[in-house]
Specification:
Length: about 280
């Protein structure tokens, strides 16, 4: 898997203008610009989609606000901090890319095209993507001060894979989201860190993920004996004897596994058989 980490002035400034204020100084700048250039503010709001699709050759229809920001000492400082942050992300990826790429290939079973991560200031707290599967760009900027390098890497990979899935089976987005979490936030992070992260994720999906979990283990290729080891590792219990082993699951990719869960959801989601620990 190939990832490039870049800082793009236009994307960074757009997020500074339309995202949360990262400092009191930036907040005052935005207020001043809004008071004096409301028309220009309205014009460039649409630039977000163009920045994703035409990032390399992007030319704004109106560059007034971009230029005003570029010419400030405040932006010089923000750009330097963002560049330093970019280097920290690049280091994490370089140190882990071989193992991460191998694990990801095992879990997804489909290839991911080369990606560009457009790094923005971490105080913006943003992970953004176009939702267009043709677009191989992720915008990323998060504080992550309480996360180790593997968790930060997991966040990045999660954003990329989520973008790859796009609007796949949008009518069943909760199942898609649950499977995505099982694959990246849970199993990918577990394998990278060598300790279970199966209690991580959206709490509203906890029930659904636990129902899918036995079939997810089959997707990973587990037999009944191996299921017990996974259950002990992840602290998730179920009666393995109640489940017929679906041998074909270990041969399909993540898209097909999502389809399997959707097709068989009436049998998978059994409230009265759920065991929660």
């Amino acid at each position: 898997m190939n990832i490039k980490f870049l800082v793009n002035d236009y994307m960074l400034i757009w997020n500074l203008l339309f995202g949360p204020s990262i400092s009191e100084t930036v907040h005052k700048m935005k207020q001043k610009l809004w008071m004096n250039y409301q028309k220009q503010y309205g014009k460039i709001q649409k630039d977000r989609n163009l920045l994703f699709m035409e990032q390399k050759n992007f030319i704004p229809d109106d560059d007034t606000l971009y230029n005003l920001f570029l010419e400030t000492e405040v932006y010089d400082t923000i750009k330097k901090e963002t560049e330093k942050y970019r280097l920290s992300l690049l280091k994490i990826w370089d140190e882990n890319k071989k193992e991460a790429s191998s694990i990801l290939k095992e879990l997804l079973r489909f290839d991911i095209k080369p990606y560009k991560v457009l790094v923005v200031h971490p105080n913006l707290e943003v992970v953004d993507y176009s939702k267009d599967k043709k677009c191989n760009i992720l915008v990323y900027g998060k504080k992550n001060k309480d996360k180790d390098s593997i968790q930060i890497l997991t966040d990045l990979i999660y954003g990329i894979v989520k973008n790859e899935l796009g609007n796949y089976q949008e009518e069943y987005k909760e199942i898609v989201q649950a499977v995505l979490e099982l694959a990246i936030q849970n199993e990918f992070c577990t394998r990278m860190s060598k300790e279970s992260h199966y209690l991580v994720g959206d709490p509203t999906l906890k029930f659904l993920k636990r129902q899918i979990y036995p079939y997810w283990l089959m997707y990973l290729g587990a037999d009944r004996e191996e299921m017990l080891r996974y259950m002990m590792r992840d602290k998730i219990a179920f009666d393995a004897e109640k489940y017929a082993i679906e041998g074909e699951l270990k041969k399909i990719n993540l898209y097909a596994f999502i389809d399997f869960c959707i097709k068989n959801q009436r049998y998978i989601v059994k409230i009265n058989e759920l065991e929660i620990n």
